[in-house]
Structure formats: structure tokens, C-alpha cells
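User: Let's play a game. I give you a shape written as C-alpha cells, and you guess the letters that built it. Ready? Here's round one.
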């Protein structure tokens, strides 16, 4: 192996093993959050398998980002959390969301005197002297006007932009216009007339050999045993899945996911499951040689959030996700109006990644801002912090950054490579 090839090989290997530290270097993080991950990673020195694992799996369904827009900083930040908090089994609710969470929550709040206006749309806010004086909700021809109280808006920033624009809140609407992003990940479910077993610690799965980069998990492995999976218990296995890459062409109709009709897309999803060699072999291994068959799929469902209009699929609720363009526009929970707050995982949190953890933290931050006004005891908020090693590396790298030098991990890599080359040349001489 020539010195040049050996040098590049060692450098690439060290980069992959130490990359979890690079994102956390404080003064560089703005640069990293504005850098697209796909422009950093290269398949020049990685095998196709390694490149697909890092880019197609980890950067897509593994992390939940849009791999083509995710930033280098968010990739590394997520990697730090995985290292600091070793991966556990998937933790989801033990019943359907409505049964396990929403219905009990709704019943509790209603008993506390909370009023609900379902199927109403918030269209306008009015203010007077930095106070929200009126909130207008509408359902078809019915209007509801709320003219007092504290207002908390917890919706995606895409729809929130429309509200701020209609309300002529220029500063907030401009910020949310820059924050807007569209992530066309499409969720679905498949039901089977037989129980399909997996012996992999209840994890989720990714069909890395599918054009749509489909991820899924068997709901029956997480839910209580007495939950009816559907069709009067005829469904024995129920898979909840997501199309991660909606712009690739499928097998049957040679169209991207969002250009299918709902019925066409159901056919295409099933086809991609059937053609996944890795999945077929996995199922055969744990199900006495059973081969996945279309006739055993007795239920197909695209979540009703999606509808077909003007030759493409559209969603009623646009999904937001971190990317290399929107990080610097993420808002605080305060809005500048004394009785108006916004919350959600798109707001600034210590997690800093669009996730359930960030949503919970944002909700608690918002609650504490209101509790603090009334001098009431604030709720505990868990802060996601770097470990001692990362903090130490940050301090060292800040010095390097001020001196205009490469980051500390690159410096360590260069030192190690230089040292090995020195030893190699010394030995050969």
C-alpha cells in the first residue's frame, strides 16, 4: 500500500470512529449546522455498504431526518446522544395512541374545566399594546372568538406561518417563513392474517433495499396482548411503517411516492416489502421457513392525513424537521406578546433536535414561563448536556478556532497520521 493510499485510509477510518466529537465544538457549530451532511460524507473511501449504512440508514430512517437536507451538526449531535445514552429497545405506547394517551388526557382535562373545540382552525390573532386581545377560530361557517386568557400555540411552523401572516405579525411571520420546511414522509399500516415473529428485541426495521427506504415496526410486539389489532381480531400482525424517501421512483408505476394515488401507493408499498430480500430471509428464519405472501396481507392503510389532489399526494398537516437551512431561525417560546407563547420541538431546546424529547422540553419551558409570572413553583426540566470529555474538547477547540486552525479532532488525526508515517519511514530507513 502506498503512503498516500495508506494515509487516506487511516484518516477515513479515524474520522468515522471519532466523528461523534466534531459536532460539539462550540464555536464551529454554526458552520456545522449550516453545512449539508451529504456534502461532507463521501463514498470515495467507503464501501457501498458502509456508505449506504451511514447515509441511507442512519441519516434517514435511523435518525428521522431528510438525508438530503440534514446538517452535519445535527448528524453529529444525534450521534452524541446515542453515545451518552446507549440505545435501548424501542419505547412506544402499549396501546393505540388515542386509547393509551389522548382519551385519558382529554377526560382528565375536561374534568378540570377545560373546553375543547375540535375540528376548528385558528385563523387570526389580534393584538393591542403587545397583548393578544382576540383569537378567532373557524369551523366551516361557525366562528368562535376568544377575547381573554393566555394563549399557547402548539402546531407545526408551516401552518403557524399562515396564522402570523394573516394576523400581520410581520416579525414572527418572517421568521417562520424562513423556518418552513416540507418533509414528505408518508406513514401507513399493513395487517396480516397470521402472526409474524421477530426475535430482535422489539426493534424497528429498515428496508434499505427498497426504493422508498421504508422503515416499520410490528405494533403487536409493543402493545398489550388484549388490544384488538383490527377486523374483529382477524389481524394477527400489524405493521406501522413510514416511507422515508418519497421522491424516488417505485417498482410498479415508475413514479415517486407522492405522485401515486392512494390505491397505487398501497400496491407499491406491498411490492417493496415482497421484493426486500433481507426482510424475506429474516422472516423465514424466525417463522419456520414462511415466505411473505401478498395474499396474507388483509389490510392496507395510508394514514388519513394524506389525500390525492391535482396529480399528487398532499398532507393536511405538514411535517417539520431540522435541516441545514432552518436551524438559525428556530424560535424561543416567548413571542414578544405578553400572553402569547409558542411551543413544539421546532423551538429552541437543549435537545436541539426535532424529537419527542425536544417537544416535552419545549412544553415544560413554556409552562415555566407562565408559572414564573404567577410566582408559582416551576416544573423540573431535564437538560441534555455534553459529557466531561466533550466539554473539555470544546474548550480546547475554541482556542484552535480563534487561531484559525482546524478543529481538535482533525488536529488529533493529523498528529496520529504524522506519527505513524514517521515511525514507518524510520523503520524503512
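Assistant: Ready! My guess for every position:
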Amino acid at each position: 500500500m502506498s503512503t498516500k493510499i495508506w494515509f487516506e485510509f487511516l484518516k477515513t477510518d479515524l474520522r468515522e470512529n471519532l466523528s461523534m466529537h466534531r459536532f460539539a465544538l462550540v464555536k464551529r457549530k454554526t458552520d456545522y449546522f449550516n453545512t449539508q451532511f451529504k456534502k461532507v460524507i463521501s463514498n470515495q473511501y467507503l464501501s457501498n455498504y458502509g456508505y449506504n449504512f451511514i447515509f441511507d440508514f442512519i441519516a434517514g430512517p435511523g435518525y428521522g431526518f431528510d438525508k438530503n437536507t440534514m446538517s452535519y451538526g445535527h448528524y453529529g449531535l444525534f450521534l452524541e446522544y446515542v453515545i451518552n445514552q446507549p440505545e435501548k429497545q424501542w419505547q412506544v405506547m402499549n396501546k393505540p395512541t388515542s386509547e393509551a394517551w389522548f382519551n385519558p388526557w382529554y377526560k382528565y382535562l375536561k374534568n378540570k374545566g377545560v373546553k375543547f373545540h375540535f375540528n376548528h382552525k385558528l385563523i387570526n390573532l389580534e393584538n393591542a399594546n403587545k397583548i393578544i386581545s382576540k383569537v378567532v377560530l373557524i369551523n366551516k361557517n361557525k366562528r368562535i372568538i376568544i377575547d381573554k386568557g393566555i394563549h399557547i400555540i402548539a402546531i407545526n411552523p408551516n401552518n403557524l406561518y399562515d396564522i402570523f401572516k394573516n394576523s400581520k405579525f410581520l416579525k414572527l411571520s418572517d421568521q417562520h417563513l424562513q423556518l418552513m420546511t416540507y418533509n414528505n414522509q408518508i406513514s401507513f399500516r399493513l395487517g396480516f392474517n397470521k402472526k409474524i415473529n421477530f426475535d430482535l428485541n422489539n426493534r424497528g426495521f429498515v428496508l434499505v433495499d427498497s426504493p422508498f427506504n421504508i422503515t416499520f415496526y410490528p405494533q403487536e410486539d409493543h402493545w398489550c396482548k388484549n388490544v384488538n389489532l383490527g377486523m374483529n381480531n382477524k389481524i394477527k400482525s400489524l405493521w406501522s411503517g413510514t416511507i422515508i424517501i418519497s421522491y424516488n421512483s417505485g417498482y410498479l408505476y415508475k413514479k415517486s411516492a407522492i405522485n401515486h394515488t392512494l390505491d397505487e401507493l398501497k400496491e407499491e408499498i406491498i411490492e417493496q416489502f415482497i421484493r426486500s430480500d433481507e426482510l424475506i430471509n429474516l422472516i423465514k428464519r424466525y417463522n419456520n421457513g414462511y415466505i411473505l405472501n401478498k395474499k396474507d396481507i388483509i389490510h392496507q392503510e395510508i394514514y388519513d392525513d394524506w389525500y390525492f389532489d391535482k396529480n399528487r399526494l398532499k398532507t393536511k398537516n405538514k411535517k417539520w424537521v431540522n435541516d441545514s437551512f432552518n436551524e438559525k431561525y428556530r424560535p424561543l417560546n416567548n413571542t414578544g406578546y405578553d400572553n402569547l407563547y409558542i411551543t413544539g420541538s421546532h423551538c429552541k431546546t437543549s435537545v436541539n433536535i426535532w424529537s419527542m424529547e425536544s417537544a416535552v422540553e419545549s412544553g415544560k419551558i413554556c409552562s415555566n414561563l407562565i408559572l414564573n409570572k404567577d410566582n408559582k413553583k416551576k416544573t423540573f426540566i431535564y437538560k441534555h448536556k455534553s459529557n466531561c470529555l466533550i466539554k473539555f474538547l470544546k474548550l480546547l477547540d475554541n482556542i484552535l478556532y480563534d487561531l484559525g486552525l482546524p478543529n481538535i479532532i482533525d488536529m488529533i488525526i493529523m498528529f496520529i497520521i504524522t506519527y505513524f508515517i514517521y515511525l514507518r519511514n524510520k523503520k524503512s530507513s
